[in-house]
Known about the structure:
The structure is a single chain. The chain is an all-alpha fold and 108 residues long. The protein has two domains: 23-63; 66-107, no CATH class. The protein contains five helices and no strands. The protein has helices at 4-9, 25-34, 43-62, 66-76, 81-101. Helix 2 (25-34) crosses helix 3 (43-62). The model is unreliable at 104-108 (pLDDT under 50).
Amino acid sequence: MLSETLKKRLTQDRPVTSITLRIPVDVLDSLKAIAPHKGFSGYQPLLKAYTSEGPRGDESTYASDAVERLAQALEKRGVSRKVWTTLSARLSFKDNLRQTRGQSCLAV
Length: 108
């Protein structure tokens, strides 16, 4: 299932903005030299590809479905869904108490 962020990213009519970026000359020269070898028409599309890779990797690591991935990993290692659900509910309860009281989860 695709996340909402990924669904938005796949649309062709996303809004864009222009920025000014200061890059060392040698890095720009490297981008220009690498671009044709990677099948890019120039350094700018290559730079866009590079700058997209970082956030996408981080988003997959920190995405909201991380809890589901953890649950699947626990199940794969023999922890039942019931145990995980109970633990998750307890942690959510403690987190809600912490937010209400302004305390650490460990203090509950």
